[in-house]
Amino acid sequence: MSKATGREPRLLSKMESRENVPAPLKDRDLCIMPYMIRGSYAIGRFDAFVKLDYASIRGKRIILDKRYDTLDPYSISNEPALILSAFNYGVIDDIGGEKRGSFSFTNFGRESSGDFEFRIGDVKQKHDYHISVQGSQIEMDGVFESKNTIINVEAKIGVKTDFMARQLYYPYRMLEGQSDKEILNVFMTYSSGSLYAHVFSVEDPFNYNSLKLVSRKRYDFYKEIRTSDIRKILSESFIVSDPKNVPTPQANTFQMVLDTLDLIRTQPGIKYPEIADSLGVESRQGNYYGNSCRYLGLCRRSGRPNGLFLTDEGEEYFKLPIRDRILKVVEIMSRRPVFNYFLKKHFLENVPVEGIDIAKWYNERGYHGSWEMDKRRGESAKRWIDWVIDRCTVEP
Fold first, then answer.
1. 189 domain residue, yes or no
2. CA-wise closest residue to 186 among 89, 116, 54, 92
3. CA-to-CA dists, residue 151 to 90, 119, 138, 183, 217, angstroms
4. Could you report the per-residue pLDDT of 191-247, keeping only the tens digit for each?
5. Other Cβ atoms within 10 Å of 232 Cβ, number
6. Can you give the residue range of the structural domain that contains 110?
């Protein structure tokens, strides 16, 4: 690669998720890895990405520490603030399974990876590639160390559907060359008041594809939400018709709906392809998530070409504390016929809800004209309901 294009080769090769891979490469199952000397890259059908799942992770509540005037975990907008909140509020200690104050913050920032070799699988699972790295530049968001354990963290704002394992694996290789302690590798994300930690071990240091998921954790930086809070909303709810000319939701990760809403707040007029790019999802999913915000009535489409802007209700939503935002979005959700029906099934009638039940509900009312579409939309609605369930502390 050269700078003749007007862009830094290093930035062109920055592929943090599968959807960040440029189309000419992605269409051929190709991606780029740093190779040999710094500034050189290998192109191949590398099995380079790890999928993430945020479903059904029960949260642990984090109480605000009034000693801190300059650190606000209720308003995290960048990776350094996320790292500092995780460290100062005991999240790092909890991930490491040790008592509060066991870990020290020992390293961060850009460094050279040193020299190492590894093998990486082919996406078609036909063979392995051999990669030799000599002084690749790595950027560590946070390294923490206790008496027995090192925690290597990659931090991102907004939930992600996958990530390039290189972001954890390259720092891991540097760290395992420095210490014999156990190393935990954490992909940490923050969205709408919740910090998520996907914790990985590396089973074989020389195998890029040997990251093994150890645990998934969620930490909530807002006051407790009880099932009685949801029951109260549902008992007072009223139904309004689904909005005209807006498709029923087909966005499976509700936390990313809230991330999309935040994008619309910070980038008024943002368009669907830009949403997809920011979220790191396929192009059509940018439409799904943007339209989900429209379905909730929190944004509107305007202008030519069409961009998305917050509605008055969307503006009011962002004036609320995080806990109240969650309750507000549940209230809005409960106005839509399908969610009113099935949220009441779960919270008021104690009846389990499955995606196929919602698909049948859609089908009986002629929503989509296709059973396959009913099933896909039914599964999305089930994921939204699960999101509400996961926010709650269950009461007797």
1. yes
2. 92
3. 13, 23, 16, 6, 15
4. 999 999 999 999 999 999 999 999 999 999 998 999 999 999 999 999 999 999 999
5. 14
6. 3-220
